[in-house]
Design goal:
263 residues, Rossmann fold, four-stranded parallel β-sheet
Length: 263
């Protein structure tokens, strides 16, 4: 069971940023990844639809013998993680949430910006995070329609992306933010461009590393940490495998076997 794989899924390729953090912290683990690109973006879908997709993913990873499941998607976590924890009470499950607590602790100006999908910003869970951790901090939220789709297309450098991103950053910078939360797993891939667009003293915070640490803790508690060496990571997508094969080297820094996911 120690050498069983870990299942990770996202609405698209954004969760590869989380997968990279898991591989960095837990290099002995074998990783399986499903990108539900045929249904992206989850932020525009109903909670019922997202819960159904979470259930499909969980069933698939159970069939693959995964010893743990990571929901590498803020929107999927908001909609589906409670149901999955009810349905699989003995399965280590790790979800995502925007890094409100560390951002509130890190800010010096008392102003925190959030770049996220519309679905995440409108969720009750995000509102609860603000109530819990950001009572003494001003939070400026910015929905970012279009960013996920550009990253899914493999666009990390275009002038169109730069214009879109600069427009989303403008109210955060004008409001005096010194800390910006990347509230979607796709957005860490924009860090190089973000750093060109913001002053050097502004911190960018995402939750991929924290998710990897939580996964490590849950596996260690159950004596499930692999000894290695791991098998090669495997990938599935509900859209075009050919497209995902093309952008894997860009976002995962290596190629890999990509299969079609038709569930």
């Amino acid at each position: 069971m120690r050498e069983a794989p870990i299942g990770v899924f996202d609405s698209g390729v954004g969760g590869l940023s989380v997968l990279a953090e898991i591989q960095r912290l837990l290099p002995n683990e074998t990783l399986l990844y499903v990108a539900d690109c045929g249904n992206i973006p989850y932020g525009e879908k109903t909670p019922e639809f997202i819960r159904q997709r979470c259930s499909v993913m969980a069933g698939f990873f159970q069939q693959q013998g995964a010893k743990a499941l990571v929901l590498a998607c803020n929107t999927a976590t908001v909609a589906g993680v409670a149901d999955l924890r009810r349905d699989y009470p003995n399965w280590p499950l790790v979800g995502m949430e925007p890094a409100v607590k560390p951002a509130a602790a890190a800010t010096r100006s008392g102003v925190v910006g959030v770049l996220a999908t519309t679905g995440t910003l409108q969720s009750a869970k995000f509102a609860a995070l603000l109530d819990r951790f950001a009572t003494d901090v001003r939070v400026i939220t910015q929905p970012c329609p279009g960013l996920v789709e550009m990253i899914e297309a493999g666009d990390l450098h275009s002038s169109a992306l730069r214009r879109l991103l600069a427009g989303y950053l403008e109210p955060l910078l004008a409001g005096g933010c010194d800390t910006i939360i990347l509230g979607c797993t796709h957005y860490p891939f924009l860090k190089p461009m973000l750093k060109q667009l913001i002053p050097a003293d502004i911190s960018l915070i995402d939750t991929g590393a924290a998710v990897a640490r939580q996964l490590q803790r849950l596996l260690a508690e159950r004596e499930l940490l692999a000894q290695g060496p791991p098998a090669e990571a495997q990938f599935w997508t509900s859209a075009s495998p050919e497209h995902m094969r093309k952008i894997l080297p860009l976002l995962w820094n290596k190629s890999g076997v990509v299969r079609s996911f038709s569930q």
